[in-house]
Amino acid sequence: MPPKPGDILELAIDTLAYGGQGIGRVDGFVVFVRGALPGDLALVEVTRRKSGFAEARLISLVAPSPRRTPFRCDHAPDAGGCEWQTFDYSGQLEFKHRQVVEALAHIGGLDHVTVEPIVGMADPWRYRNKMEYSFGLDGGEPVLGMHRRGSWREVVDVPDCHLAPLEISRARQAVLTACRALELPVYSSAAHIGLLRHLVVRRGLASGELLLNLFVTERFPEERELAERVAAEQPYTSFAVTVNETRADAAVGVGPFMIVGPPYFHEELAGVRLRVPALAFLQTNSEMCGVLYETALRYAAPAAGRSAYDLYCGIGSLSLLLARQAAPVYGLELQDEAIAAAAENARLAGRTDIAFAAGDVRKLLLDPPTGRDTDIARLIEADGKPHQSLRTPATQPFAPPAVIVTDPPRAGMARKAVERMALLGAERIVFVSCNPATLAANAAQLATIGYRLTTVTPVDMFPHTHHIEAVALFVREA
Ligand SMILES: C[S@@+](CC[C@H](N)C(=O)[O-])C[C@H]1O[C@@H](n2cnc3c(N)ncnc32)[C@H](O)[C@@H]1O
Fold this sequence. Notes:
By secondary structure, the protein is of the alpha/beta class. Helices cover 24% and strands 30% of the residues.
């Protein structure tokens, strides 16, 4: 008899689901429990039942898993975000590896793929190059931290998150102290009044540069004084204000308006120096991002004088790496600002053999015209948004690239984008993915159109969270 809502059960947790929930079984019926780990014997209350599974709330641990370790942060149980902080690190790596294997087998129907050992961190703490804090009130006092697990309203003060470098934690404290001293009002989402909304702190691991970006509802007179007070506590490179006057509870808005320093910081990934604009995407773990990119480059094996594509290129990091050997390189990306930054990064690196274009990859990769008498450089120009384009004679025949690197968002690639990517006829496709489920679905599609998945390397970019990153190599069947 499957359990029903309200039932209290003693449940042995035997594995983890993708998403990080513990899985236990009652007479074979699956029960998901957030916060439970493999090896736990847990007392749980069933909260929901669906046709094939139930969900339950963890009440207490009857016998904790031998793989449990103590919390390192005092606020981790409340703050959310790093739900695996009490799971020993070797256990985390083992489950992440297993989840890649299982996703490929169960979702992609691919059970003969070599999944290399996951690359973990030697020291899996203080790895984040970006922290996003929310302002809130606790007993009328401003606090600055994370939303309480499961609550959009309440903010837990987080003086020192152990995933953040100490400089970032100190910057958070300096901003909070200065905001309290200046009596700046915290924004209330219920009343849509107040000033302070979010603080984003970014730090280049290689450069040590620190960029602080304060998200507020409007520009305010004390901006410079605030910046000076913070600098006296924690030196930084840049201090910006970004205005979010909407109701959206996110660190987005108009800006950045620079109070001190330039609107970017510098980072170096796999030997490539990058200028990163305040609001641009960058992988949040710089150390492991270097490993990720080196793995992608090894799989890509770009060839001198052969072209390469970098799909979903962001600010152009992988394009610059590919351009060490390949020429030309084509980088495609949705956001105009990211493409402008990518073009600037190429210029700063003295590269003239990379063309970037802004737009949806699915639309930019038009079906090659009959006879393939053109190449992507002119397709990019046809889209009307070239930032830097190569002069390719119209008569030059289309030459399939040696390699395509693709790094889509979590949702993976649209079916049409995968089809059009395959039509370019590259010998190899290197797929960088932050979601094994969509990687598996895209891999299954690629298998039907001539690309065989040969090897996958998971890289642990996000210790103490359930998130999984992997690089996959596809080769074109002869
Ligand atoms: C996972 S990030 C990868 C960025 C870059 N490769 C890197 O390593 O920093 C995915 C990127 O895809 C972009 N993007 C999202 N949807 C897109 C689409 N439909 N077409 C092109 N780019 C898209 C996002 O703006 C983001 O920069």
